[in-house]
Amino acid sequence: MFSLKKRLIAAFISVITLVSFTNFTNTVYASSLTTIVEIVISDGFLGTISIKALPEKRVSVLGGNLGTLMRVRFTDPDTDDQLLETSYTSSSFGLTTSNVDISTLTPNEYHIFAKGRSHLTRKMSNVNLTTDTTNIDFSYGDTEYLYAGDVNGTIFGDDIVNAIDLSILINDLDSFDLRTDLNRDNTVNALDLSILITNLDKEGDA
User: Fold this and answer.
1) Which residues contact 90 (CB under 8 A, 6 or more apart)?
2) CA neighbor of 117 nearest in space, from 71, 86, 78
3) Is 19 strand, coil or helix?
4) Mind listing the pLDDT tens digit of every residue in the chain (206 residues)?
């Protein structure tokens, strides 16, 4: 079996006439009697990674208050074809509780999208994933957050904050609903309304 990491194979070739060698990505030609040819093997698949994404405006709670249902997608930067989608519930610190399996992907560049249950999509473009990649941080060191307020549509909303979301949240005022309790203080109130209004007309990254 080939190693998951890229390897260099030195092939000693004793030939009199032109011989060609082909691997997955390139062809190397040798014409001398004894030549060392380096062939780069780029086969192999990725393993598992940890993902961090932080919902905005959560109230501070001992032990963390940043958990939410998350959806993460990987797409081809050239064609925009979706190659992998996975969902999970993040920990109270915004991390995956167990590593995400991306073993169906090969080392390459990808667009990666993260979306929270009531939050807009954030995109990381042209991320170079290698077999040494162990984590993806959408918070960029706890400085970036997922915009809140996308509470309508399916379980992951429609990726825009508009009057429909505003109407739903107003209808939920003074009740408890994880979808519209944007700051997770266990009640839907004016604080959640303020968060949504701040993000009106914002759309998720495409």
Assistant:
1) 51, 53, 66, 67, 68, 69, 70, 96, 97
2) 71
3) strand
4) 334 333 333 333 333 333 333 333 333 333 333 333 333 333 578 999 999 999 999 999 999 999 999 999 999 999 999 999 999 999 999 999 999 999 999 999 999 999 999 999 999 999 999 999 999 999 999 999 999 999 998 899 999 999 999 999 999 999 999 999 999 999 999 999 999 999 999 999 99
Q: Cα(61)–Cα(67) distance, rounded to whole angstroms?
A: 12
Segment holding 181, helix H or strand E: none
CA distances (Å), origin 175, targets 68, 76, 187, 190: 19, 42, 6, 12
Q: How many domains does the chain have?
A: 2
pTM of the full structure: 0.79
- Give me the domain span that covers residue 162: 48-198
Within a domain: 204: no
